[in-house]
Amino acid sequence: MTSLLHYPKKSVLFYCLIICCASLNATAARAQQWYTGSLVSPAPAKDHAGDAGIEPYFTYSQPIGYYDAHGISHPQHPRQQLFSNSTMWKYGITDALSIQAHTVISYGWKKDAGHSTGPKFGDFPVDLIWRFVNANPKRYIPSLNLFAGVVFPTGDYSSLGHGQDGVGAGSYVFRTALMSQSTYKLPGNHNLRLRVWNWFRRALNAADVRDTSTYGTTTGFRGKGRPGMSGQTGFSLEYGINRQWLLAIDVARDWANGSRVWGHTKAGSYTDRTGAPSGDWQVAPAFEYNWNANWGIIAGASLYYAGHNTSIKIAPQFAINTVF
């Protein structure tokens, strides 16, 4: 076998350059960014049929005040506190169509108003997600995803023995969203992923309301309730420090029309009222860490910093993302 020492120096240098380039290419291939996903943004359809994912979120919600109708902040006492687990289940039906569902279990308490009688299962959203445009980073084309689904009224909302047990709306709610996702390469070989989305929700029916309910009724009431239209618009950024660590932030605006409730009180008088509309702005900074392409964790907090007719809240949370 002929040694490289017998080749001219230029040839040796040429082979060394080839080896270095091959090593760099291999390193670049291995350095593909791993993601968990930001705290608030919806996630697009799975890339391949048969792909599945589970992502449980654990959240503690601590109100610190409220915004009145003019957006002026006030202290709030007593404060409604809540601990919840929201788990996302997702499965790729085809390479462009996925189905997802969320199970939500919560436990609430408030001074002078007691505690939930136990962990409460909330309303149950199920969505189909269709990726109708595939991303093309070289041409700066984002992926586009359409969400369409229904929130099923599985949570307790009426005939409540305890006000803290109310976790549902009693109505089937249609919801849809348009969401885009794009990734950009920044100087220093850092990835930046951008998501932009817009949700819209509308109740499909009025719920039968009896006695104490999430619509603010009391013992003896008989009538109907219907949640108002609502939605959310936002964007998220995820900056790759390295392949495993990322900084993430969401900025979103929530809005909701007031719920309508009508019927007869215990005294027999008829009432028909619609609640005031509400809205808020939230920012959710977080850290992401990924052990590999299939396992990751994110931790941060949602901070509600502006709005009207809504609580000022801090909601620390973390989630574990699993893909298989």
Commentary on this structure:
This protein has one domain: monomeric porin ompg (Porin, Beta Barrel). It is mainly beta and 324 residues long. The chain is built from 1 helix and 19 strands.
Roughly what is the average pLDDT, rounded to an integer? 91
The helix fraction, in percent, is under 10%
- In total, how many beta strands? 19
Which CATH top level class fits?
Answer: Mainly Beta
CATH topology group:
Porin
Q: Which class best fits the helix and strand makeup? A: mainly beta
**How much beta, percentage-wise?**
over 45%
Biggest sheet overview: 12 strands, antiparallel, barrel
Major sheet: order of its strands?
1-3-4-7-8-9-10-13-14-17-18-19
Per CATH, the superfamily is monomeric porin ompg
Rg: 25 Å
Protein name: Transporter
Signal peptide: 1-31
Keywords: Signal
Organism: Acetobacter indonesiensis
Please specify the SSE layout and strand pairing.
Blueprint: H1 9-30, E1 52-67, E2 73-74, E3 81-92, E4 97-110, E5 114-115, E6 120-121, E7 124-133, E8 143-152, E9 173-186, E10 190-203, E11 207-210, E12 222-226, E13 230-240, E14 245-256, E15 260-264, E16 270-274, E17 278-290, E18 295-308, E19 310-323
Antiparallel strand pairs: 1-2, 1-3, 1-19, 3-4, 4-5, 4-6, 4-7, 7-8, 8-9, 9-10, 10-13, 11-12, 12-15, 13-14, 14-17, 15-16, 17-18, 18-19
